[in-house]
Specification:
By secondary structure, the protein is mostly helical. The protein has 18 helices and no strands. Helix 1 packs antiparallel against helix 2, helix 2 packs antiparallel against helix 6 and helix 15 crosses helix 16. It starts with a helix and ends with a helix. The relative contact order is 0.14.
Length: 368
């Protein structure tokens, strides 16, 4: 766990020194932080991350599979297969996949935070503290898909709808759930108000009570016997409950300070209202995950927006002391959450203990 605590310490200390809410200082700060995060994730051992060893084996098998049989021989999506196949021409060492995937996952996220967060240090700290960073070491395919969704979001903001569709399509090439993110298009345009809070509340109740029936309906619509393999559809109720409570707590803080801004006559931007929808969907799939574990993975598409949404909400706090207190409180909660999970439930993500997978022989093999 020490390596992750070092990363959080680095992010916090250098955030206090370098990050002063100006682009001139924020850019090198984000570059330093995400270079560190990318490097640590990229050189990890295949034993770090529950699914890492599986992806490493698949990488080698994909490399040995002829192009004619490539897309019919594996259950993985087309873009992931192409990535692995092309990388095999550079090196058969699966460490290359870990390095490249770490770049694909963390660099777009760093750019997303730089472009959108009023407090890059807080967003970067929460990225590690809330467990998103370590989750990304586990769910490689979906994490890459999330990165392309973040790029799609930038296209959405600039009204380049065709490019938005293109990047959602690329994301779907890494994970089959990504097409659901087409929902971002209408959510960006419809705004957010108190009526949505009531509507989402009703959806939360329905999703909790009828989760299994909804899953069966989705399976029917998709022409499957079940929505996902039964070994993944069980429920880790305690873990899902903890994550749902965390999502509710953070959403409550964000909505509260957005409301404070509105009471002072400040209009919420399109981005602010969009982040409210993302937080609500984070809660929704956390609740789904309490009943059917696999649905909790969809949270990864939405809690990443919370990293910026939190910082956007805190900008409405006029009193500097109160703002500093709330930031410290959020940081302390994130740190405590990370340490508790790391100590008592390390098997959830399999990233503790951390190990380095790159030696001198690996460096030689990577360039063969």
């Amino acid at each position: 766990m020490a390596i992750y605590l070092f990363e959080m310490t680095f992010i916090a200390l250098f955030g206090a020194i370098l990050c002063r809410e100006t682009e001139k200082r924020t850019k090198p700060y984000i570059t330093l932080c995400f270079f560190m995060l990318t490097f640590v994730a990229g050189i990890r051992s295949v034993n770090v991350g529950v699914d890492t060893e599986q992806f490493s084996r698949a990488y080698q098998m994909i490399g040995m599979t002829p192009w004619d049989n490539l897309f019919s021989s594996f259950r993985y999506e087309w873009a992931f297969l192409l990535l692995c196949k092309v990388l095999n021409y550079i090196s058969v060492n699966p460490q290359l996949l870990l390095i490249v995937s770490s770049i694909l996952i963390n660099v777009p996220l760093g750019v997303f935070i730089f472009r959108n967060s009023p407090s890059a240090a807080l967003s970067a700290f929460l990225y590690v503290g809330l467990g998103l960073y370590t989750s990304n070491m586990n769910i490689m395919r979906e994490a890459i898909a999330v990165s392309f969704i973040l790029i799609a979001f930038e296209m959405l903001k600039s009204n380049r709808d065709l490019l938005f569709l293109l990047f959602v399509f690329i994301a779907s090439g890494f994970h089959q759930t990504a097409p659901f993110l087409l929902i971002l298009w209408p959510l960006w345009r419809i705004g957010f108000n108190k009526h949505f809070i009531i509507a989402y509340g009703a959806i939360f109740v329905i999703s909790f009570v009828f989760a299994h029936q909804i899953s069966d309906l989705l399976a029917l619509l998709l022409g499957r016997d079940q929505i996902y393999s039964s070994e993944f559809t069980g429920s880790n109720y305690f873990g899902a409950l903890l994550k749902a409570l965390l999502a509710v707590f953070i959403t409550a803080i964000v909505l509260n300070y957005f409301h404070v801004g509105q009471k002072r006559g400040i209009l919420l931007s399109n981005e602010d209202q969009f982040y409210c929808h993302m937080l609500m969907l984070w809660i929704l799939f956390s609740i789904f995950g309490m009943q059917i574990q696999i649905f909790s993975r969809l949270c990864m598409y939405f809690n990443v927006f919370a990293l910026v949404g939190i910082a956007c909400a805190l900008r409405f706090i006029q009193n500097a002391g109160e703002r500093a207190f709330v930031e410290l409180l959020l940081g302390a909660i994130a740190l405590s959450y990370f340490v508790i999970i790391g100590m008592f439930r390390p098997e959830w993500q399999g990233v503790i203990p951390y190990g380095v997978g790159v030696g001198f022989s690996d460096c030689i093999s990577l360039i063969r």
